[in-house]
Design brief:
This is SnoaL-like domain-containing protein. This protein is α+β, with helices and mostly antiparallel strands. It contains five helices and ten strands. The protein has two domains: 3-136, Nuclear Transport Factor 2, Chain: A, CATH 3.10.450.50; 157-270, Nuclear Transport Factor 2, Chain: A. 29% of the residues lie in helices and 31% in strands. The strands form two sheets. It has a five-stranded mixed β-sheet, covered by helices on one side. Strands 6-10-9-8-7 form a five-stranded mixed β-sheet, with helices on one face. The relative contact order is 0.14.
């Protein structure tokens, strides 16, 4: 992306504020539209198209990807780093919880990556962004699953709050506080589809993976949940902790079925040292 193209992006974003004001008066900003806008924005990383970037508020855009500078200029600078035509973007799942839209995407820029992105909308514009990225392995996990395949159908539209509570309790009980005696209560026996690259299906697969990690001296610890978002039967938990002794951000997506955790995807990212951060917003810091 050249300088002229970046200026076009900024102009498009500013011009879109006028249309947004008209849209707010008409009351036609629908939830499904926000999802579509997020998918289009992410796809613009691949296509270089300027129009989708207009959904970002050019005057107020807080960035929590610590490798990207703050504001719309930071987003533009990120795009400029990519060789033309090199990026590939395929958003596999996208959900909405109030003013938040969160997506799971298969990326390829500077190598294949799997990522979760969270966008916060305010007055119909994106004003804040969080994400977690992990290099995608070449091979599937021990049960033959990739980091992105599996169920995509949204259901249980009226059970989002209930399912969010189930996931929040699970992460706090098991991952944060290590109350393993409660583990089986969250699952339907050994029926559990796992997409973590190192872990096989079921509680049996989880047990084998934890045993292998222990033998290698690898520890994983969740210290705190920062945010839980959900729509229907899908719930995303954003947590902070450590993996192999390094500060780590955990994004875990769960599919809940009949009150039990039925499927799990995750992305684990090491948090870079503060001296390397390109913004001062922190990796988490969700507004209350």
């Amino acid at each position: 992306m050249n300088k002229k193209h970046f200026i076009l992006i900024l102009a498009s974003a500013i011009t879109a504020n006028i249309a947004l004001g008209q849209q707010k008066k008409s009351g036609k900003m629908e939830n499904s539209q926000k999802k579509q806008q997020v998918v289009a924005l992410l796809k613009a990383i691949e296509t270089g198209e300027a129009a989708p970037v207009a959904v970002i508020n050019p005057n107020s855009y807080k960035q929590h990807n610590l490798a990207v500078a703050d504001g719309l200029a930071g987003f533009g600078a990120l795009l400029q780093q990519l060789p033309k035509g090199s990026a590939k973007v395929n958003t596999v799942r996208v959900f909405q919880d109030g003013n938040y839209v969160f997506a799971q995407t298969d990326y390829n820029f500077f190598g294949p990556k799997t990522g979760f992105d969270i966008f916060r909308f305010e007055d119909g514009k994106i004003v804040e962004h969080w994400d977690n990225l992990q290099q995608t392995p070449e091979s599937p996990n021990p049960s033959g699953h990739t980091m992105i395949d599996g169920h995509t159908t949204l259901s249980d539209a009226g059970k989002a709050s209930e399912n969010k509570k189930i996931v929040s309790n699970f992460v706090n009980d098991i991952l944060v506080n290590g109350k393993m005696e409660k583990l089986s209560a969250y699952f339907d026996g050994d029926n559990y589809v796992q997409h973590n690259p190192q872990i096989g299906d079921g509680l049996s697969g989880l047990g084998k993976a934890l045993e292998a990690m222990a033998k290698q001296g690898i520890t994983m610890k969740y210290n705190k949940i920062h945010k839980v978002l959900g729509e229907g039967n899908f719930v995303l938990a954003v947590s902070e902790g450590s993996f192999a002794g390094k500060a780590t951000s955990f994004y875990d997506l769960f599919r809940v079925e009949n009150g039990k955790i039925a499927e799990h995807w995750d992305v684990i990212e090491t948090i870079s040292p503060e001296s390397d951060w390109k913004n001062s917003n922190g990796k988490f810091n969700f507004p209350e």
